[in-house]
Specification:
Elements lengths: L1 H13 L12 H18 L5 H9 L6 H19 L12 H18 L5 H9 L6 H20 L8 H14 L5 H9 L14
């Protein structure tokens, strides 16, 4: 116990006080996270001595694993969005870390819908640009990708791309009266044509 406690303490000191993450692919971090989990189980069953409990608390231990992991994931999620121009992670990405964050994001949305997401966590998510409507989140991501595509190529996305299909969906929404004023204004500001006359146009 004491040897692993020391390793846990050093890990936290080296990672700005963050606890090891069970989802990590780093063997040592995962080992420490599993150890922490086992200590929590002993605490819940009343089998963790007071001496050991106090030693754990002294290094910043949190007995609610979900509380601990939430803030770690929030920080990782925030860094991902900053590194990707505000885009949210894709839960179906081939990149393991992006896929993990995308699934975490989905779990948070489900908890929000069920009224099980604490207000403190909700406020923290909103503060970094979180959108609880996944369809709106995807729309914003597609808008950003389309703007970047136009900037890099000088043309609208190819007809075989998902962004072309997204623009077509906006055209359908416009003529069916389903497009919101906010979306229309954003498309106009980005100079992305969605009316039928210019739908097939390229720059």
């Amino acid at each position: 116990f004491w040897h692993t406690l020391e390793a846990d303490k050093k890990f936290r000191e080296a990672h700005d006080g963050n606890a090891p993450n069970l989802s990590s692919e780093v063997p040592e971090e995962k080992r420490l996270a599993i150890w922490e989990s086992s200590c929590r189980e002993r605490k819940k069953k009343g089998k963790l001595s007071k001496e050991r409990e106090e030693a754990l608390v002294a290094i910043g231990w949190v007995y609610d694993p979900y509380e601990d992991q939430f803030w770690q994931n929030l920080e990782a999620y925030k860094k991902f969005r900053v590194a990707h121009n505000g885009q949210a992670p894709n839960s179906e990405s081939e990149d393991p870390e992006e896929r993990r964050l995308g699934k975490w994001e989905g779990r948070c949305r489900r908890r929000k819908k069920k009224g099980k997401l604490p207000k403190e966590r909700e406020e923290a998510l909103v503060a970094i640009g979180w959108v609880f409507d996944p369809f709106e989140e995807q729309w914003q991501n597609n808008l950003q990708e389309t703007k970047e595509s136009i900037k890099n190529t000088g043309k609208l996305p190819k007809q075989t791309s998902k962004l072309y299909k997204w623009r077509k969906k906006n055209t359908d929404d416009l003529y069916d009266g389903k497009m919101t004023v906010e979306h229309y204004k954003k498309l106009k500001r980005a100079k992305i044509p969605v009316d039928k006359q210019t739908y097939g146009a390229v720059f």
